[in-house]
Every structure is written in structure tokens, then in C-alpha cells.
Amino acid sequence: MDVFVFLFAFVVSFGLLASTVLTRHDVRALFGGSGNWALGSPGTRAARKADKPKTEAAPEPKKKKEEPAEAAAEEPPPPEPEEEEAQPEGDATGASVALMKFLEGSVAHLIKSKVELTAADKFGANLFLAGAVEVIRLQNKLNKKQFVELLERTLAVIGNKKEVAQRLADKYEEYLLEAQYIKMFHGGTTALERFLKGNSDSIKSFTAAVLDWRNPKDQMTKADGPITVMFTDIVGSTKATQQHGDEGGQRLVRAHNAVVRVALKENGGIEVKHTGDGIMARFSNSANAVDASLQIIKGMHQYNRDHPNDLQLHMRVGLNAGEPIIEDGDLFGATVQMAARICDAADTDHCLVSNIVRELCSGKPITFKDAGKYAMKGIEHPVTLFEPISR
Question: Which of 310, 299, 293 lies closest to 250, judged by CA?
Fold first, then answer.
């Protein structure tokens, strides 16, 4: 609750300040300056060009034969680089005032309802707020740079870092292909539109959307094409329970759940079930499944750095793709069994994938290394597995 009290105090303070007439300079000062965001915008690129040192031409070799003056005169001068036209700026000041008033009410209702945002909730909340920012962008004719700056300030209210806004803006089109993501985004859009028309009840929409995000309905629909199945497994969970009791073992489970569920939410994965020492999940896109596995391993290392004096989290991840049987929201069949065995074969703190997963990622900027051949129960010949190492 201390975090929410802090956030509430922040938005209330800003709301009071924003109720007066502000200049653009004042608003930027309140948020710590406008800055130059990594959009590849004309201003950013121009700055990089200006800062780049000029290189001196290399001296001619002493014995180089001189070209005739006529030939040299015929060579056209190199074309001048075209300057990209800067996008016109919209009314960023008015945009900040309207949006922050909506945020003030939404966060206050969240606190009043005693709903605490978890790490797994954060991505859905970001989509909702991005939908609200989209309304302001259209009404105030903000350019892309202004939009990302406003999105960054908005997401910071619920504890996001700067780069989250840029990542969300860059992956809009991909995110809005998923039904649950579209629902959150449109929820934010609708809520702010109602708020701007004077409907005070619209501030309750944020809380309702977060609760719905936690318990989505009808998400287990049959996918067209292959499904990528993921298994995660906590390494040493039984030993941790024996040495540190049930509470120690449960701390590792909670840490694992948080890391994995954030990666699933941000990469379009759906949790099928908890296995006790891990999670089984499914993806309709193999590249997203690989991205999630890399994010899980990265998140695990980050957790250990953040908790050096606590039990360290270690896990393994396995991926396989195929057409499993879907029944009562669960997955069955050879595809699932192979995914579980691939997970078991992975080294601690590593991920392994089948060849079909690697092939389904063909054309994507993902690098795999050959992890060798592994004997699999029920399969006559050893199976070659691969480890994703970069994206």
C-alpha cells in the first residue's frame, strides 16, 4: 500500500498543479524536461549527425597515377543528404492536463478498491493507459515524438521505466493483433472519451480492466496452425523446501511465477496450468515463445541480482511446436510430452527448443546454436535440440 500512497500523492499533486494555466515550458519542467527520445526522429538523427566527428581524407599513395583533369571534371559531386521534414507539434500542454486529471481519479479508485498492481498486471495496465493516451494524441494532434513523451510520463505514474513507453509504441501493431490486448487498449480509449464528456464514473474503468486482465474469459480457443508449447521448471525446489521449509520453497515459486507470467503477458503467451514446480503455457507464434523464454532467463538473473541475500532462483525452459489436443482448457498429446522432455533436458538457467521451433522462427532475427543430440523416451533415435541465444 505504501507504493500506492506514493503514486496517489504524486498524481494528486500533479493534478492540483495542472488545474492552473500552464505553458509548455512549465509542463516539461514538472516532468523533468522533454528530452530527445530514441525514436529515430528527425531531431534525434540531426543531433547524431552534428555530433559525429568529421574524418580526414586519407593521403594519396605517392606513386598513384594522376587522372586527366577532364576525367576528374566529369565526376559529379556526391549528392547532399536529404533533410527529413520535422513533424508539426500539437498542443502537448493541454494534453498533459486532461490526461493527468483522468489518471488522478483512476489511481484513487484503484487504491479505494484495494487492488494492488502486480508485475503480471503491469503490461495490461500499460495497454489500457496507452489507449487513453491515443485519444489525447488524436484530439491534440500530437506528433510521434510528443506522443511517446506523453506515454512515458503516463506509464511512469504506475512505476514504469522510460524504455517501456518506447517499446510499447514500437510494437503497437503486433500487440493489437491479440484479442485480449485490443480489449485493454480500447478500454482505455473508451474510458477517457467518456471522462472528457463529463462522465465521472469512467475513472472506475481502470480498476475493472485490471481485474478482467487477471481473469480473461474464453481465452482457450483453438489456434489455426501449430501451437508452441512451453514448460518451465524450478531447479532445486525440493531441496529448497527441505532446507528452508515450506515458506522458503514457496518464495521461490512466487518469484518464478512473477518472472514467467510477465514474460507470457508481454509476448502473447497463455498460461495453461501450474505444474507445482513450473508453468505450462502455449503460444500461437513460435518467435514470441522464444522471445518469452529469453525474457524469462533474463528476468531470473535480474531477480537474483535484486535479492542477493535471499534464496536464488534457478530454472530451465523447454519449447516444442505441433498440433496438440485441446480439451477442457488443457493440452495433451505427443507435442506436449516432447516439450516437457525438452525442458528436462535443458541445463540449469538455459532454454532448449526443438528443430520445428527453430524452423518456424526462420526469417526472424533470432540466433540458435546446436546444443547436441539427446535421447528422448519413446523416440528411437537421438533428437537434435537448439538453444536460442539472441534476438
Answer: 310
Instruction: State the sign of the Cα–Cα–Cα–Cα dihedral 304, 164, 292, 350.
Output: negative
The mean per-residue pLDDT over the stretch 62-74 comes to: 44
Query: Are 237 and 194 part of one and the same domain?
Result: no
Identify whether residues 24 and 120 lie together within a single domain: yes
* pLDDT band of 380, cuts 50, 70, 90: confident
Q: Is residue 283 part of a domain?
A: yes
Q: Which domain holds residue 141?
A: 2-39+89-214
Q: Report which of residues 378 and 292 the model is more confident about.
A: 292
Q: What is the 3-state secondary structure (H, E, C) of 173-195?
A: HHHCCCHHHHHHHHHHHHHHHHH
Report the C-alpha gap between 306 and 293 in whole angstroms.
20
> Per-residue pLDDT tens for 349-368?
999 999 999 999 988 889 99
Nearest CA among 153, 150, 257, 151 for reference residue 214: 257
Please give the Cα distance from 27 to 39 (Å, whole number).
21
Domain finish residue from 214, 245, 268: 214
Position of cell 533470432? 366
Same domain, 294 and 375: yes
Q: What is the pLDDT of residue 92?
A: 59
Q: Is residue 379 part of a domain?
A: yes
Q: CA 197 → CA 41, 193, 302, distances in Å?
A: 33, 6, 44
Residues 204 and 260 in one domain: no
Number of domains in the chain: 2
**151 and 282 inside one domain:** no
What's the rounded Cα separation, in Å, for the pair 354 and 335? 10
Task: Name the grid cell of 179.
Answer: 484479442
Residues 178 and 269 placed together within one structural domain of the fold:
no
Q: Are 93 and 27 in contact (CB under 8 A)?
A: yes
Task: Output the pTM of the full model.
Answer: 0.50
Q: Phi and psi for 280 in degrees, rounded to 5?
A: -105, 130
Residue 219 domain-assigned (yes or no):
no
The tens digit of pLDDT for each residue in 331-342 reads 888 899 999 999
